[in-house]
Design a protein that fits this description.
Blueprint (H helix, E strand, L loop, with lengths): L3 E4 L9 H9 L6 E6 L11 H10 L4 E6 L3 H11 L3 E5 L17 E5 L5 E5 L1 H13 L3 E6 L17 E5 L10 E2 L1 H15 L5 E5 L4 H9 L4 E4 L9 H16 L13 E2 L1
Helix pairs in contact: 1-7, 2-3, 3-4, 6-7
This protein binds D-xylitol-5-phosphate and zinc ion.
Zinc ion binds next to strand 2.
Length: 267
Protein backbone atom coordinates (compact mmCIF):
# COMPACT_ATOMS: atom_id res chain seq x y z
CA UNK A 1 0.00 0.00 0.00
CA UNK A 2 1.30 3.43 -0.90
CA UNK A 3 1.40 5.93 1.97
CA UNK A 4 1.50 9.67 1.32
CA UNK A 5 2.57 12.49 3.62
CA UNK A 6 1.29 15.97 4.27
CA UNK A 7 3.63 17.89 6.59
CA UNK A 8 1.67 20.52 8.50
CA UNK A 9 3.01 24.05 8.19
CA UNK A 10 1.37 24.85 11.52
CA UNK A 11 4.62 23.74 13.15
CA UNK A 12 6.80 25.94 10.93
CA UNK A 13 8.22 29.33 11.83
CA UNK A 14 5.61 31.63 10.25
CA UNK A 15 8.29 34.27 9.66
CA UNK A 16 10.13 31.76 7.48
CA UNK A 17 7.40 29.78 5.73
CA UNK A 18 9.17 29.65 2.36
CA UNK A 19 12.33 28.31 4.01
CA UNK A 20 10.27 25.68 5.83
CA UNK A 21 8.67 24.62 2.54
CA UNK A 22 12.07 24.29 0.87
CA UNK A 23 13.49 22.37 3.82
CA UNK A 24 10.73 19.75 3.88
CA UNK A 25 10.53 19.50 0.10
CA UNK A 26 14.00 17.98 0.11
CA UNK A 27 12.21 14.79 1.21
CA UNK A 28 9.52 15.13 -1.49
CA UNK A 29 6.27 15.20 0.48
CA UNK A 30 3.21 14.44 -1.64
CA UNK A 31 1.30 17.35 -0.05
CA UNK A 32 1.73 20.37 2.19
CA UNK A 33 -0.93 20.60 4.91
CA UNK A 34 -2.30 24.08 5.56
CA UNK A 35 -4.33 24.47 8.76
CA UNK A 36 -6.91 27.22 8.43
CA UNK A 37 -8.47 28.13 11.80
CA UNK A 38 -11.04 30.86 12.26
CA UNK A 39 -11.02 31.51 16.01
CA UNK A 40 -14.63 30.29 16.17
CA UNK A 41 -14.85 26.67 15.05
CA UNK A 42 -11.63 26.18 16.99
CA UNK A 43 -10.05 28.41 19.67
CA UNK A 44 -7.13 29.43 17.49
CA UNK A 45 -6.57 31.68 14.49
CA UNK A 46 -3.97 30.85 11.86
CA UNK A 47 -3.72 31.11 8.10
CA UNK A 48 -5.99 32.87 5.61
CA UNK A 49 -6.27 33.17 1.83
CA UNK A 50 -3.35 35.62 1.32
CA UNK A 51 -0.94 33.18 2.94
CA UNK A 52 -2.28 30.27 0.89
CA UNK A 53 -1.78 32.40 -2.24
CA UNK A 54 1.77 33.23 -1.14
CA UNK A 55 2.52 29.56 -0.50
CA UNK A 56 1.18 28.62 -3.90
CA UNK A 57 3.67 31.04 -5.47
CA UNK A 58 6.67 29.32 -3.89
CA UNK A 59 5.83 25.65 -4.30
CA UNK A 60 4.60 23.08 -6.80
CA UNK A 61 3.74 20.62 -4.04
CA UNK A 62 -0.05 20.31 -3.88
CA UNK A 63 -1.66 22.26 -1.04
CA UNK A 64 -3.89 20.20 1.27
CA UNK A 65 -6.01 22.88 2.90
CA UNK A 66 -7.77 21.85 6.12
CA UNK A 67 -10.60 24.27 6.81
CA UNK A 68 -11.40 24.43 10.52
CA UNK A 69 -14.01 27.13 10.10
CA UNK A 70 -17.66 27.49 11.06
CA UNK A 71 -18.82 28.80 7.71
CA UNK A 72 -17.09 26.91 4.89
CA UNK A 73 -20.01 27.77 2.62
CA UNK A 74 -18.80 31.39 2.74
CA UNK A 75 -15.06 30.73 2.80
CA UNK A 76 -14.54 27.80 0.44
CA UNK A 77 -14.20 29.90 -2.71
CA UNK A 78 -11.56 32.10 -1.06
CA UNK A 79 -9.28 29.09 -0.75
CA UNK A 80 -10.08 27.67 -4.17
CA UNK A 81 -9.18 31.05 -5.67
CA UNK A 82 -6.00 31.23 -3.56
CA UNK A 83 -4.79 27.96 -5.08
CA UNK A 84 -5.80 25.14 -2.75
CA UNK A 85 -5.46 21.81 -4.55
CA UNK A 86 -7.51 19.90 -2.01
CA UNK A 87 -10.00 21.46 0.38
CA UNK A 88 -11.26 19.57 3.41
CA UNK A 89 -14.28 20.75 5.35
CA UNK A 90 -15.57 19.48 8.70
CA UNK A 91 -18.80 17.55 8.99
CA UNK A 92 -19.48 19.43 12.22
CA UNK A 93 -20.55 23.00 11.85
CA UNK A 94 -20.63 26.03 14.12
CA UNK A 95 -19.42 26.51 17.67
CA UNK A 96 -16.54 24.82 19.37
CA UNK A 97 -15.97 21.09 18.96
CA UNK A 98 -14.73 21.07 22.55
CA UNK A 99 -18.07 22.24 23.88
CA UNK A 100 -20.88 20.40 22.08
CA UNK A 101 -23.54 22.15 24.13
CA UNK A 102 -22.46 25.39 22.50
CA UNK A 103 -22.62 23.99 18.97
CA UNK A 104 -25.52 25.64 17.29
CA UNK A 105 -25.92 26.82 13.74
CA UNK A 106 -28.79 27.73 11.47
CA UNK A 107 -27.64 25.11 9.00
CA UNK A 108 -27.00 22.35 11.49
CA UNK A 109 -28.91 19.22 12.11
CA UNK A 110 -27.92 17.02 15.01
CA UNK A 111 -27.12 13.41 15.59
CA UNK A 112 -26.62 11.30 18.67
CA UNK A 113 -22.98 10.49 19.24
CA UNK A 114 -21.55 7.56 21.13
CA UNK A 115 -21.33 9.73 24.25
CA UNK A 116 -24.17 11.57 25.93
CA UNK A 117 -23.36 14.82 24.16
CA UNK A 118 -25.14 16.00 21.08
CA UNK A 119 -22.92 16.32 18.04
CA UNK A 120 -24.06 18.88 15.54
CA UNK A 121 -23.36 18.12 11.92
CA UNK A 122 -23.98 20.04 8.75
CA UNK A 123 -26.97 19.17 6.63
CA UNK A 124 -26.06 16.66 3.90
CA UNK A 125 -27.23 19.10 1.23
CA UNK A 126 -24.80 21.73 2.47
CA UNK A 127 -21.88 19.30 2.64
CA UNK A 128 -22.53 17.79 -0.78
CA UNK A 129 -22.81 21.33 -2.18
CA UNK A 130 -19.34 22.18 -0.86
CA UNK A 131 -17.82 19.11 -2.51
CA UNK A 132 -19.52 20.00 -5.79
CA UNK A 133 -18.05 23.49 -5.67
CA UNK A 134 -14.53 22.17 -5.14
CA UNK A 135 -14.94 19.67 -7.98
CA UNK A 136 -16.42 22.28 -10.30
CA UNK A 137 -13.22 24.29 -9.71
CA UNK A 138 -11.16 21.25 -10.70
CA UNK A 139 -9.91 20.60 -7.17
CA UNK A 140 -10.17 17.69 -4.78
CA UNK A 141 -12.64 17.64 -1.88
CA UNK A 142 -12.31 16.13 1.59
CA UNK A 143 -14.52 15.55 4.62
CA UNK A 144 -13.09 15.75 8.16
CA UNK A 145 -14.53 14.36 11.38
CA UNK A 146 -13.64 15.43 14.90
CA UNK A 147 -12.71 12.98 17.69
CA UNK A 148 -16.25 13.15 19.11
CA UNK A 149 -17.96 12.37 15.81
CA UNK A 150 -18.73 8.73 15.01
CA UNK A 151 -17.14 7.57 11.77
CA UNK A 152 -20.47 6.13 10.67
CA UNK A 153 -21.69 9.67 10.07
CA UNK A 154 -19.11 10.06 7.29
CA UNK A 155 -20.21 6.93 5.41
CA UNK A 156 -22.94 8.56 3.29
CA UNK A 157 -20.38 10.98 1.86
CA UNK A 158 -17.55 8.62 0.89
CA UNK A 159 -18.51 8.26 -2.76
CA UNK A 160 -18.71 12.05 -3.14
CA UNK A 161 -15.23 12.87 -1.83
CA UNK A 162 -11.59 12.25 -2.67
CA UNK A 163 -10.49 12.15 0.94
CA UNK A 164 -11.80 11.53 4.41
CA UNK A 165 -9.87 12.99 7.34
CA UNK A 166 -9.95 11.40 10.78
CA UNK A 167 -8.87 13.84 13.48
CA UNK A 168 -6.73 12.06 16.05
CA UNK A 169 -6.58 15.13 18.28
CA UNK A 170 -9.14 17.83 19.04
CA UNK A 171 -8.57 20.37 16.28
CA UNK A 172 -6.98 23.69 17.09
CA UNK A 173 -3.39 23.07 18.09
CA UNK A 174 -0.34 21.08 17.14
CA UNK A 175 1.68 19.07 19.60
CA UNK A 176 -1.13 17.04 21.19
CA UNK A 177 -1.11 13.30 21.90
CA UNK A 178 -2.61 10.83 19.40
CA UNK A 179 -6.06 9.54 20.42
CA UNK A 180 -6.29 5.78 20.02
CA UNK A 181 -9.99 6.07 19.21
CA UNK A 182 -8.93 7.23 15.72
CA UNK A 183 -7.65 3.75 14.88
CA UNK A 184 -11.07 2.10 14.91
CA UNK A 185 -12.43 4.93 12.75
CA UNK A 186 -9.60 4.42 10.25
CA UNK A 187 -10.38 0.70 10.12
CA UNK A 188 -14.07 1.33 9.57
CA UNK A 189 -13.60 3.98 6.89
CA UNK A 190 -10.86 2.14 4.99
CA UNK A 191 -12.96 -1.06 5.00
CA UNK A 192 -16.02 0.84 3.80
CA UNK A 193 -14.03 2.50 1.01
CA UNK A 194 -12.62 -0.86 -0.08
CA UNK A 195 -16.07 -2.48 0.03
CA UNK A 196 -17.39 0.27 -2.23
CA UNK A 197 -14.41 0.02 -4.56
CA UNK A 198 -13.44 3.62 -3.81
CA UNK A 199 -9.91 4.89 -4.33
CA UNK A 200 -10.09 7.15 -1.31
CA UNK A 201 -7.39 9.04 0.52
CA UNK A 202 -7.75 8.13 4.21
CA UNK A 203 -6.02 10.93 6.04
CA UNK A 204 -5.18 11.08 9.74
CA UNK A 205 -4.25 14.30 11.49
CA UNK A 206 -2.85 14.89 14.95
CA UNK A 207 -0.13 13.38 17.12
CA UNK A 208 1.53 11.47 14.29
CA UNK A 209 5.06 10.37 15.14
CA UNK A 210 7.12 7.30 14.23
CA UNK A 211 5.11 5.08 16.59
CA UNK A 212 1.62 6.32 15.82
CA UNK A 213 2.35 6.54 12.07
CA UNK A 214 2.84 2.78 11.95
CA UNK A 215 -0.34 2.19 13.95
CA UNK A 216 -2.39 4.53 11.76
CA UNK A 217 -1.17 2.92 8.54
CA UNK A 218 -1.81 -0.55 9.91
CA UNK A 219 -5.38 0.64 10.65
CA UNK A 220 -5.90 1.82 7.07
CA UNK A 221 -4.59 5.40 6.82
CA UNK A 222 -2.81 6.16 3.55
CA UNK A 223 -2.14 9.87 4.06
CA UNK A 224 -0.44 11.09 7.21
CA UNK A 225 -0.38 14.68 8.44
CA UNK A 226 2.51 15.54 10.71
CA UNK A 227 3.36 18.89 12.21
CA UNK A 228 5.50 18.64 15.31
CA UNK A 229 7.22 15.45 14.14
CA UNK A 230 8.33 16.97 10.83
CA UNK A 231 8.34 20.78 10.67
CA UNK A 232 8.93 20.98 14.39
CA UNK A 233 12.13 18.96 13.92
CA UNK A 234 15.56 20.49 13.43
CA UNK A 235 15.88 18.74 10.05
CA UNK A 236 12.36 18.40 8.56
CA UNK A 237 13.48 16.36 5.55
CA UNK A 238 15.31 13.82 7.69
CA UNK A 239 12.31 13.67 10.05
CA UNK A 240 9.98 12.99 7.12
CA UNK A 241 12.26 10.20 5.88
CA UNK A 242 12.16 8.60 9.32
CA UNK A 243 8.38 8.85 9.35
CA UNK A 244 8.21 7.20 5.92
CA UNK A 245 10.28 4.32 7.17
CA UNK A 246 8.09 3.93 10.24
CA UNK A 247 4.91 4.06 8.16
CA UNK A 248 6.37 1.43 5.86
CA UNK A 249 6.63 -0.89 8.84
CA UNK A 250 2.93 -0.30 9.55
CA UNK A 251 2.04 -1.04 5.93
CA UNK A 252 4.05 -4.25 6.11
CA UNK A 253 2.04 -5.34 9.14
CA UNK A 254 4.87 -4.73 11.58
CA UNK A 255 2.93 -2.39 13.87
CA UNK A 256 1.21 -3.39 17.06
CA UNK A 257 -2.57 -3.17 17.10
CA UNK A 258 -2.71 -0.03 19.17
CA UNK A 259 -4.28 -1.72 22.17
CA UNK A 260 -1.63 -0.12 24.34
CA UNK A 261 -3.14 3.23 23.37
CA UNK A 262 -6.69 2.24 24.15
CA UNK A 263 -7.15 4.15 27.35
CA UNK A 264 -5.22 7.31 26.76
CA UNK A 265 -3.45 9.60 24.40
CA UNK A 266 0.09 8.92 23.32
CA UNK A 267 2.20 12.04 23.61
C1 LIG B 1 -4.60 20.42 14.49
C2 LIG B 1 -4.20 20.46 13.05
C3 LIG B 1 -3.06 19.59 12.71
C4 LIG B 1 -1.76 19.93 13.40
C5 LIG B 1 -1.12 18.64 13.70
O1 LIG B 1 -5.82 21.06 14.63
O2 LIG B 1 -5.28 20.09 12.23
O3 LIG B 1 -2.86 19.54 11.30
O4 LIG B 1 -0.89 20.71 12.64
O5 LIG B 1 0.00 18.87 14.47
P1 LIG B 1 0.78 17.68 15.19
O6 LIG B 1 1.30 16.78 14.11
O7 LIG B 1 1.81 18.37 15.97
O8 LIG B 1 -0.24 16.96 16.05
ZN1 LIG C 1 -4.85 19.79 10.06
Amino acid sequence: MRVEFSPSLLSADFMRLAEAVRAVEAARPEWLHVDVMDGHFVPNLTIGPPVVRALKAVTDTPLDVHLMVSNPEEQLDWYLEAGADLVTVHLECGGSPEAPSRIRSRNCGSARGSSASVIAVSSPEKVFGLFERAHAAGRLAGLAINPGTPAELALPFLSAVDLVLVMSVHPGFGGQGFMASALEKLRLLSSAAAAQGLDLLIEVDGGINEKTAALAVAAGANLLVAGTAVLGAADPAAALERLRAAAGAGAAGGAADGSQLATSNLA
